[in-house]
Amino acid sequence: MMSSVLESSVADCHPANAPDYMPVAQLRELQLQRLQTVVARAWHQVELFRSRMDERGLAPQEIRSLEDIGKLPFTVKSDLRDTYPFGLFASPMKDVVRLHVSSGTTGKPIVVAYTKEDVDVWTSVMVRCLAGCGLHHGDIVQIAYGYGLFTGGLGAHYGAEALGATVVPTSGGNADRQIMLMKDFGVTAICCTPTYFLHLIDRAAELGVELKELPLRVGVFGAEPWTDSMRRHIEGLSSIEAFDIYGLSEIIGPGVGCECRRHQGLHIFEDHFYPEIVDPATGEPLADGNEGELVLTTLSKQAMPMVRYRTRDITMILPGQCECGRTLRRIGRIGRRSDDMLIIRGVNVFPSQVEAALLEIEGTLPHYQIVLTREQGLDEMEVQVEVTPRMFTDKIGALQGLHDRLQGALDHVLGIRVRVALVEANTIERSQGKARRVIDRRTS
Ligand code: DLL
To answer: Please, are residues 170 and 144 in contact by the beta-carbon 8 Å criterion?
Structure first.
């Protein structure tokens, strides 16, 4: 059996990973050249983009350096909705080989398009993600991200196949069958949302399947925020090394960025996606190391180029280079979005603050839900938290003690009084994909 150090260096030497190590000057030159091409393409082919450039009196030839990217107009999610379904396409439909749809919470869904070359780029970045997580030819990879209009399943699928792995395309749902196949096929890696994997951990325990005894050694988790405490929880209950993978439909799907084996931030595949961090309120660029909104520009997308897309995801570009030797810049883990902020009695609350507080307290499980109601005109927030079965069989005093500790921790981080409800294991609905953390029962 290969040692993990050797395994890591073999993965890092995977031919697909070569662009990860490109000298910085060469990478910047490539980025500029691609930026100029993508801006020209969007200007020629996309009405909305051309009119915004024209309003600013800006011509594509005026993008002469990477810093000039700041002159370009932003693109926002409502632009995709307003031009639904095909208004931002830069390729004729005959060249579009794939459409995906992301539904979001309100209004029309957004549609994204790919040419054959776009699918190839997507596959190549996914190969680089998976190879960077230590996967290679011979691995058996279970893809439990949803297949279909969601980009997770097919994105991971193409990447894993191109890497030379054996793919088990289970898609989401049917936990018992997922666990049976994982065990019977000797699956070595799984790609799914972190909350779905938590669900699989619980279900495996109920079925008497000891995950630690299976060959499963890598988990590639993303599509929703998760924390280092959740990583420790997952790694403690299985024998996997858990990696964070990031992406969004508007840019390509999964594969915009991914952790390497150092687990110190997510490398952005900068030869295809150009990252900036801006102040979410003013749109002004922020220097590395400052937290703000991630803005991404696609550098090679044909069917639907995105220029300065406001992701709403809050993170920072981490200063310095990763010890792994990749020259690709890294972003910090995404804990929250600028638009998932709840305002409760005038106080700003992020679900990620609740999660961070809960995970620090022993006796709770990482399953929780925030329920918002309005009572006599006032917003009320209840945090429902599952507790370990042992807590429920223990003396009532223990439960009260846990309740008080949680109440104290939440009061402290949130700065407002919320209700805490301890519930038995398995009472909060399990996610088949992205977890639904907030149930808003307020009527306006
Ligand atoms: O979730 C693509 C994806 C699939 C990424 C599988 C990773 C793995 P959308 O449905 O368009 O696409 O949702 C994109 O999900 O803007 C973030 O807010 C959130 N998100 C994605 N990955 C992460 C992550 C896919 N690793 C939105 N951490 C993004 C935190 C994430 N949030």
So the answer is: yes
Q: What domains appear along the chain, each with residue ranges and CATH number?
A: 1-337 (3.40.50.12780), 342-440 (3.30.300.30)
Name the amino acid, one letter, at 148: G
CA of 100 to the centre of ligand 1 (A): 14
Going across the sheet that includes 330-331, the strands are 166-168, 140-143, 189-192, 218-222, 241-248, 253-259, 266-268, 330-331, 317-318
Q: Over the range 12-44, which residues count as b (16 or more CB within 10 Å of their CB) and which as e?
A: bebebbebbebeeeebeebbbebbbebbebbbe
- Taking CA atoms only, the protein residue closest to ligand 1 atom 9 is 248
Please write the tens of the pLDDT for every residue from 120-169. Answer: 999 999 999 999 999 999 999 999 999 999 999 999 999 999 999 999 99
Residues with CB under 6 A from ligand 1: 102, 145, 151-152, 222-225, 244-249, 253-254, 311, 313, 334, 337
Distance from the alpha carbon of residue 313 to the mean position of ligand 1, in angstroms = 9
**Helix axes of 175-184 and 194-207: crossing angle, nearest 10 degrees:** 80
The secondary structure of 159-195 as a DSSP string is HHHHHTPEEE---S--HHHHHHHHHHTT--EEEE-HH
- 57-79 burial: b if 16+ Cβ within 10 Å, else e: ebebeebeeeeebeebbebebeb
Query: Which position has the token pair 């999610």?
Result: 77
Name residues of the chain where pLDDT drops below 70: 1-13, 104-107, 444
- Residue located via tokens 């919320």: 418
4-48 pLDDT per residue, tens: 433 444 445 577 788 999 999 999 999 999 999 999 999 999 999
Helix (H) or strand (E) holding 122: helix 116-132
- Spacing, Cα 376 to ligand 1 middle (Å): 37
Residue-level pLDDT at 105: 55
C-alpha–C-alpha distance, residues 116 and 135, integer Å: 25
Centre of ligand 1 from the C-alpha of residue 247, in Å: 5
User: For atom 18 of ligand 1, which residue has the closest CA?
Assistant: 313
